[in-house]
Amino acid sequence: MSNEARREDGSTPNPAPYSFGGEWSPSAVEIERRIARKKQVRRKALIAAISSILVLGTLATIVITSPGWKVLSATFFHWSYGFQVLPKILLGFFESNLILTLIASVSVAFFGLVIALIRTSRSAALTPFRILATIYVDLFRGIPMLLVIFLVGFGIPALQLKGVTNNVFILGIIAVIITYSAYVAEVIRSGILTVHPSQRAAARSLGLSNFQTLRHVVLPQAIRRVTPPLLNDLVALIKDTGLVSILGVTDAIRAAQIEASRTFNYTPYVMAAIIFLCVTIPLTRFTDRTLRKSIERQNAQGQA
Amino acid sequence: MRIPVLEISEVRKAFGSEVVLEDISITVPEHTATVLIGASGSGKSTLLRCINLLELVDDGTIKLDGQEITSVAANPDEIRRKLGMVFQSFNLFPHMKVLDNIILAPMRVHGISRDEASEKAIELLKRFGLSEKADQYPDRLSGGQQQRVAIIRSLAVQPRLLLLDEVTSALDPVLVNEVLSTVRDLKDHGMTMVLATHEMGFAKQVADEVCFLEKGRILEWGSPEQMLENPTNPRTKDFLQRVHEAGRL
Predict the structure, then answer these.
(1) Residue-wise over B164-178: b if at least 16 C-beta within 10 A, else e?
(2) Which of A148, A276, B102, B246 is the most exposed place for a label (fewest CB within 10 A)?
(3) Does A275 have pLDDT greater than 80?
(4) What is the mean pLDDT of chain A?
(5) Which among A215, A228, A136 is positioned nearest to A182, based on CA atoms?
(6) Do residue A262 and residue A122 come from a single domain?
(7) What is the pLDDT of residues A177-209, one digit of tens each?
(8) Does the residue A39 lie in any domain?
(9) Are A100 and A203 found together in one domain?
(10) Would you say A78 and A270 are in contact if contact means Cβ atoms under 8 Å apart?
(11) Which bin fits B44, alpha (ψ -120 to 50), beta or left (φ > 0)?
(12) How far apart are CA B218 and CA B38, in angstroms?
C-alpha cells in the first residue's frame, strides 16, 4: 500500500533497473494450467448440479407423495382464491405494516441514539438518566415483544387516564418503539465503544469539546460500523409489525386471518407471507451488500 | 527574562500503585525543542499526555505561558487550544478527507469560516508537499504522508507548543526521513516543542535540551552534545549503548 502511494507521487527517485511490458503471450505451461483449471471448474459444476437435483428432488418427492399433500395444497395453495383476497391483504399491509414500519423506524432511530448516548456518557449530571436507561434496556430487551404489546395495548387504556389514546394502532406503534429502541440503543452503543480511544484523544487534543468529539469524530464512525446490524433490525421490525394484529389492528396478517376464518382456506396466510417476503428479501440482500462493503473498507484500513 | 512557554515542576503521576512519573521538572523556553529519550515505559508518553491534560497529574504543577494548567479551575478545552499533539499512531479521522481532518478544529474550536480554514490548510499542505492529497481519505496515504498530515492538522490551530510522541515509531525506515525533515522544518521556523523519540541522530539535530528518563525519573539532562556523546550517568551510557547496538544512532 505505502509503496504504491509513493510511486504515485513520484517520490521514489530511481526507476526500476529492469522493465516489464511489451507483447506478452502465455507460455506453454500457463496454457496447460488454464486448460486444467477449466476442467476442474466444469467438474465442480457437474457435482453441484447432481447433488442439488438429488437432494431437492428427494425433498420434493417426499412432500408431494405424502398422503395429505392433496388436501394441504388445496387449503394452502389455492391460487385463484389467493389472488381474489390479495387486494384486502395488500391494503392491510400498506395501511398498517408499512406505515407502522416507517413511523417506528424513524422513532426507534431517534430514541435508540439518545439512549445509547446517555449510556455511554460519563457526565455526572446524567447519572440518574444513565441508571434509568440501563434499567430500561435490561427490561425491554428481556421481555418478549408480544407481552409488551399486550401490556401497552390493554394496560394503558385500562388506566383510564384523560387524554390518553385508546387507539390500538397508536398503542401498537408505541409498543414496537419501546421494544426496538432498547435493541437499537445497544447496537449503537456497541458501535460507539468500538471507536478506538486514540480517536477521542486526537480530537480532544485538538481542543474539541466532549460533545464536538462525539458529534464529529466518534458517532460518524460508530454509525458506519453498525449500519449492517441496524439494517438487520429493520428487517426484523418489518416482520414484527405483524404482531400488533393481536390488538385488532387490521394489518396484512389480520386481514388474512379474517379471510381464512371465513372460508377455512389458509391461502390468504401464504399470500401475506409472500407480501412480507417481497419487502424483506430485497432488504436482506441490500444488508448483505452493505456488510460486505463495510468489511472490505475495514480490511483496506487495516492494510494502510 | 521572558516567561518560558512550558514550566513543569515536581510532577508526579501514578496509575494505581505504579508510579510512572516522579519529581519531573523541565523548563522549555520559547523557540526551543526539548527531547525526551528513554526506553519504552520510562514515562515519556505519559508526561506528554499530562502536558496535554489527557492525564491528570497527581502532584506538582505544569505552567503554560505562566498560567498553571494543572489548576482545578483551568478549563482543559481552552488549554488544549494552545497545544498541538502528534501521536505515534497518527490518529487521523478515517471518515474524513485530508482537508476535512485539518480544518475540523479551526472551524469548530476557533470559529474560523470553512473557506478561510481551507485556504490556510491548503497553504500548509503545499508547504509540506501534500497539496495533491487534500481530497483523499487517510487510508489512501502512506504512513509517512499520514503522519505529516497529522502534523499539519496540529499546526492548523497555531499552537504555542507542539507535543510529538514518538512520531516515527510506527513507520518503516524509508518513510521516517520525510517526517523528521518536516519536524526539523518546524523547528527552524521557531516552533516550541517537546518530543519523545528513539531517533538519536535526529535528537542531536533538533534538540536544545535532552532529558533521559528511566522508570519515571529524569536521570540526566543537558545539551544534546553532552548527553549523547559524553553522558555522565552510567544508566544513560548504558541506554545509549543499547540504542547504538540496535543501529539507531
Answers:
(1) bbbbbeebeeebbeb
(2) B246
(3) yes
(4) 89
(5) A136
(6) yes
(7) 999 999 999 999 999 999 999 999 999 999 999
(8) yes
(9) yes
(10) no
(11) alpha
(12) 9
Contacts of B109 in chain A (CB under 8 A): 206-208, 212
Distance CA B40, CA B235 (A): 15
CB contact under 8 Å between A201 and B93, yes or no, is no
Residue pair A245/A257 in contact (Cβ under 8 Å)? The answer is: yes
Query: For chain A, how many structural domains are there in total?
Result: 2
Low-confidence ranges of chain B (pLDDT < 70): 1, 248-249
**What type of residue sits at position A216?**
H
What pLDDT score does A31 carry?
93
Count of helices and strands (H, E) across chain A:
14, 0
Whether A105 and A188 share a structural domain: yes
Grid coordinates representing A302 are: 487495516
A39 touches chain B (CB under 8 A): no
In a domain, A78, yes or no: no
Cell matching residue B133: 492529497
* Subunit contact A1:B132, Cβ cutoff 8 A: no
Please tell me the predicted confidence (pLDDT) of residue A10. 45
CB-count exposure of residue A93 (10 Å: 0-12, 13-18, 19+): buried
Cα dist. A197→A63, A223, A300, B46 in Å? 56, 16, 20, 15
Work out whether strand B209-214 and strand B33-37 pair parallel, antiparallel, or are unpaired: parallel
Range of the structural domain that residue A218 is part of? 91-303
Q: CB count, 10 Å around CB of A15? A: 7
Q: What is the pLDDT of residue A21?
A: 63
Question: What CATH number is given for B1-82+161-249 in this structure?
Answer: 3.40.50.300
| Domain contains A71 | no
Same domain? A48 vs A148: no
Write out chain A residues lying below 8 Å of B132, CB-based.
9
How far is it, in rounded angstroms, from Cα B148 to Cα B179?
6
**Is A245 found in the same domain as A138?**
yes
Least Cα distance to B161 among B27, B71, B10 occurs for: B27
Return d(Cα A62, Cα B135) in angstroms, integer: 61
Domain-located, residue A21: no
CB contact under 8 A, A206 and B154: yes
* Residues A279, A142 within the same domain: yes
E strand or H helix that includes residue B59: strand B59-64
Q: Would you call A205 and B80 a contact, using CB atoms and an 8 Å cutoff?
A: yes
Most confident of A86-100, A159-173, B235-249: A86-100
Domain CATH for A212: 1.10.3720.10
Note the Cα B237 to chain centre separation in Å: 24
